[in-house]
Amino acid sequence: MQILDGKQTAEQIKAEIADEVNRIKARGGKVPHLAAILVGNDGASETYVANKVLDCKQVGFDSTLIRLPADITEQALLDHIQQLNENSDIDGFIVQVPLPKHIDETRVTLAISPAKDVDGFSPASVGRMCLALPTFISATPNGVMELLKRYQIETAGKHCVVVGRSNIVGTPMSILMSRNSNPGNATVTLVHSRTPNMADICRTADILIVAIGKPDFVTGDMVKDGAVVIDVGITRVADASKASGFRLTGDVHFESVKTKCSFITPVPGGVGPMTRASLLQNTLKAQALRDQL
Length: 293
Known about the structure:
Elements: E1 2-3, H1 6-26, E2 33-39, H2 43-59, E3 62-68, H3 74-86, E4 92-95, H4 105-111, H5 123-130, H6 139-150, E5 159-163, H7 170-178, E6 187-191, H8 198-202, E7 207-210, E8 228-231, E9 235-238, E10 246-249, H9 254-257, E11 263-264, H10 271-289
Parallel strand pairs: 1-11, 2-3, 2-4, 5-6, 5-7, 7-8, 8-11
Antiparallel strand pairs: 9-10
Helix pairs in contact: 1-10, 6-7, 6-10
């Protein structure tokens, strides 16, 4: 069993991006600029956005963090989004989710210009991904594809089972793995909460990608010997033995699965760092793609 080290791989990607930023500066070009809108003070979102700001600093990007109160109106938030759409200095931006319940996340997503949609969530981005046209791939699926590529894991002709059908991870993951590309060219089965005999299907997977949001959902008896296991999930689980009072757990029961698989991502330190690195990749790409989107 080999660990797919997302933390180390993400550092390699960030070093590559930093080198490219230095080349941009040397030729007098514009430094990429990533902005983030944070509504309210959700603890997990605060941490995630703070890390994104640090990532930008590490690679030499400009960054802007816009903090808005939790009781902001939906229209006021949309006005801020439009200002970023029109700001030529901003190459890409994200609106951190979850949003307060009184704000429609779909309306917010639709309001973001496809040319600056570095999260890859807009209908235009998703449609172009399906057609294999230049676009922004949503950060988590792109991070998984980068891991598979950089560890030279063979995917062509393999059976890939994706557990979970969210618009952010599961569905785009299934499309990317089936595309005529490398990584890709897999035969893909997507399973979800309504799938009967899910465990039986998982046991047929050469590559098992789990993004269902349930801690320790996939156990050793659901995994074929030698399978590649990608754990996208991360959940805080109460643990009195920890100073923080919790531990981070993935969707895969690591201890029972690690003895059966050939490769596995840890939690934390697997897909999470790759998601953040992919956001930087998309921001770097934003200037080159803007005229095409």
